[in-house]
Amino acid sequence: MLRLLNLELQKLLLNRTSTVLIFISFVLPFFVILLSSFKIDVFGFFTLELGELGIFNFPLIWHITTFFASQFKFFFAIVVVSMIGNEYSNKTLKQNLIDGLSKKEFILSKFYTIVFFSLISTILITLISFCIGLYYSSYNEVAIILRETNFLVAYFVKLTGFFSLCLFLGMLVKRSAFALAFLFILFIIEWILFGLMAWKINGDMAEKIQNFFPLKSMYKLIDQPFQRVVMTKFPDKANLGYDYAVHWYEIAIVLVWTAIFIFLSYRLLKQRDL
């Protein structure tokens, strides 16, 4: 595993564009810190500071930071599809196979890289969230601090699943730009199918089925926290209640999709004439 990971990291770090994109994808989550320090001047009457509103209290902060940090995953997605595009355009894929790397090891090297960077990103957002929480939170009990850290697990699984999808699309079309376009097309297809199901059956059942779709299942791992923030400030707004928790079956769905994407990537490579 380490040999394959080291091989892939060498390729990425020797490519200037990939190095820049990796750097950006790791730096952007730190903008969550800036979010905590935002001060909004309300028509000169008073200043609203987000950090003083209590939204960075434990355990809410794990939900807030993982949701916003996951919005920056597109930058490393470019790196993932570029990994495949460069292999074909630079003929390094064929050379690696000639040098003795099996097709299975080739796909595994990509997958190990995806897991590695997803893990690094998760560790970074953990440290960021912990520091912001210690600074702003009025709670310092260990039980409260560790509560809802399952959002970090969901964040890791979400990144791994999304990048595995990007790997499959890169293998499918061989070109970075086309792979990213297919990602957008998949998003549109999912919503078209949802619309058709809602029209043919009913909205609730259509939404339950939609939650099994690749992109929607990944999104559902970490639901938007805005309603939850409103609920903490206005407890009487019971009608705003929704299920924001991380559920084991949501993680299982994304893990199944991840396995499917890696398997399909391997099958594509195995059957393709290089």
How far is the N terminus from the C terminus? 24 Å
Tell me the Rg in angstroms: 21 Å
Written as H for each helix and E for each strand, in order along the chain, the element string is HHHEEHHHHHHHHHHH
Q: Which descriptor suits the 3D outline?
A: globular
The percent range for helix content is over 70%
Look at the helices and sheets and give the structural class: mainly alpha
Number of self-contained structural domains: 1
Main beta sheet, described? 2 strands, antiparallel
What's the total count of β strands? 2
Strand content: under 5%
Keywords: Membrane, Transmembrane, Transmembrane helix
Transmembrane segments: 20-40, 60-84, 111-136, 151-170, 177-199, 248-269
Protein name: ABC transporter permease
Layout of helices and strands, plus pairs?
Elements: H1 2-13, H2 16-27, H3 31-36, E1 39-42, E2 46-49, H4 60-69, H5 74-89, H6 92-98, H7 103-136, H8 142-146, H9 150-173, H10 176-200, H11 203-210, H12 214-220, H13 226-233, H14 248-271
Antiparallel strand pairs: 1-2
Helix pairs in contact: 1-7, 2-5, 4-7, 4-9, 5-9, 5-10, 7-9, 7-14, 9-10, 9-12, 9-14, 10-11, 12-14
Report what the structure shows.
Pfam families: ABC2_membrane_2. The chain crosses the membrane at residues 20-40, 60-84, 111-136, 151-170, 177-199, 248-269. Keywords: Membrane, Transmembrane, Transmembrane helix. This is ABC transporter permease. Helix content is 72%, strand content 3%. It is mainly alpha-helical and 274 residues long. The protein has one domain (2-271). A two-stranded antiparallel ribbon has the order 1-2. The radius of gyration is 21 Å and the shape is globular. The mean pLDDT is 82.
